[in-house]
Amino acid sequence: MMQANEAVASQSEQALEQLVEAIDQLGRRQQRVSLGDMQQEIGERSFGPFLFLPAIVELSPAGGIPGVPTLLGIIVSIFAVQMLLGRRSFWMPAFLSRRTLDGDKLHAALRKVKPVVRYMDRVVRPRWQWLTRKPFIQLVALSSIAAAASVPPLEVLPFASSLPFSAIALLGLGVITRDGVLTVAGMVAAVSALVLVAWVLLG
Question: Membrane-spanning regions, if any (predicted)?
Fold first, then answer.
């Protein structure tokens, strides 16, 4: 049993590293990388990566560009709503699928986060997997939507949008690796982001 669990954990970790590497290779091969290209590379049934990847991009230096956090929040919301509705595969509107990123900048951003991903590979493993399945996956979706909704008000504060995107990264990573502990951490971080928004708006 222990060997089986270790094998599953190894597969999850490999999947995470392969995910980042696959998108990184797109950035190295193409001058411009569209969201449609990423969708084709990842597959239409992978909700977790489309929570995790926008969050990682926002947490990189690219997230400091005005307007980028809000755009990424919209992308997260589109996928999270489809998760909430229980869709088996996700749909991306044409205006989003045609949006492109500079390949060199995408490669540079992912190169910076690769050490973080390698660290995650050592600590994440399938735990409390029931939290990453229905009906609890709907809580993950709701938490992602709440975190994404908190992004626009927080753009007025330098780096404040990193909190909701940290929540989204944890939620996406939890779904990818079937780690319910990470999804709980992501939900707590999403609630913290909403509290921060309330403080910004009411303070």
Answer: 67-85, 135-151, 157-176, 181-202
